[in-house]
Design goal:
2 domains; DNA polymerase, domain 1; about 10% strand; alpha/beta; Rossmann fold; about 230 residues; homodimer; six-stranded parallel beta sheet
């Protein structure tokens, strides 16, 4: 086998839309925060950017509307988004099968980690909500220079597990997760639970697409994920 | 030409996700209302049902979760959704180009109407928000026996304009709009502004898919919509 390819893949999991049902609340929070910054954008356009780094999301949306943000405005935007998302936190639930999938991976002694484009501050309550077992490596926006669609988050997750990215399966709900997986030379697997269409995820390079973590767990043998 | 086919099509417009940026708020309102009824469902599954009649949406989701609703529970669910959606009404905006598209159709003397799966009570503030010109026929859930994906709403819209449905272009953001258009033998045109993926709309039979009303207006000649 070429270097790095293995018959016992490690697993890297995205957080928002992959383990927690939080994408729609994020989209509405970004929409309101952008409006406070004087940028009017339809929610669907923002939805299609969720999973990108917040900085990149703001930049790309600002470019689209021709409204360039100063550093101060960008910082305020991120703060407003965090505050408006926190206000909806009580409505966020774990996705079906999220906890079961994590427990199954741990029980099978599959090396696994979480890698999210979110900052630790906004990810922390979600990590608590899904009760990530202690000892699981967690990579957030704060740990890398560039978030998805750059490969850094998946690469850092693989590095923390001590495995090459080529031996990892990277699971995410957004096009950015899958594009980042291809750049990292990991195998990207999509879930529909973030609200993207199946074809969008396939066209971004998904090896397989499942409905949500519960559906992935039901079909985990298709991915060659096996006990250690 | 076969009966009904014309070189001067009428236009039937959906409301939520087609003229108003209200789909994400509807999805979250349904999610919370369903949870109050003891039904836990991920937001993306609800999002994929928006645009159906509320009754059908509740029934299909209840069937999916194995939780059959009594008539009393179903009525309470609809009331809770209406209340929770109304609470978010201040965040809802007209979609880009919605007003321009309506004015353009009126100016060109194209016969046009609005046909929505929503009840008049929840549609009324949205119709006001986009400032529908007076005299435009408005068909709501209350006017027909079955909402989309049944063809009734599009058929009623065409009837109110005094044209056969085969001569109409039916514009909507959801798979249900497009399936209903095929059943009505109208030409279905999709918009991405409700947050479905382009391929989902194409697979449901969209003749063309545009980003939002502004993008449709920019390409209106592709549809053969012309001045009277």
């Amino acid at each position: 086998m070429p270097s790095g390819i293995t018959s016992r893949p490690a697993v890297l999991l995205d957080l928002d839309g992959t383990l927690t049902d939080s994408v729609y609340q994020h989209a509405i929070a970004w929409c309101k925060a952008l409006e406070l910054a004087g940028i009017s954008l339809s929610v669907w356009r923002i939805h299609r950017r969720i999973g990108m780094s917040g900085g990149l999301l703001a930049e790309s949306l600002a470019r689209e509307t021709g409204h360039e943000l100063t550093e101060h405005e960008a910082a305020k935007l991120r703060q407003d988004h965090a505050r408006l998302f926190a206000a909806q936190l009580a409505d966020v639930r774990p996705l079906p099968g999220a906890k079961d999938l994590m427990h199954h991976l741990t029980k099978m002694q599959v090396p696994w980690a979480i890698a999210t484009s979110g900052a630790l501050a906004s990810a922390a309550p979600l990590l608590k909500l899904v009760a990530v077992p202690s000892g699981v490596p967690i990579i957030t926006r704060d740990d890398v220079e560039h978030a998805k669609p750059s490969p850094d988050l998946w690469l850092a997750g693989a590095a923390r597990l001590g495995v090459p990215a080529e031996s990892a399966i990277a699971v995410g709900d957004s096009v950015w997760d899958l594009l980042a997986a291809r750049r990292a030379r990991a195998l990207g697997v999509g879930v529909l639970s973030g609200g993207y269409g199946q074809e969008e995820l396939e066209r971004a390079g998904a090896y397989r697409v499942y409905e949500d973590p519960a559906d992935l767990l039901l079909h985990i043998d298709e991915l060659g994920i096996r006990a250690g």
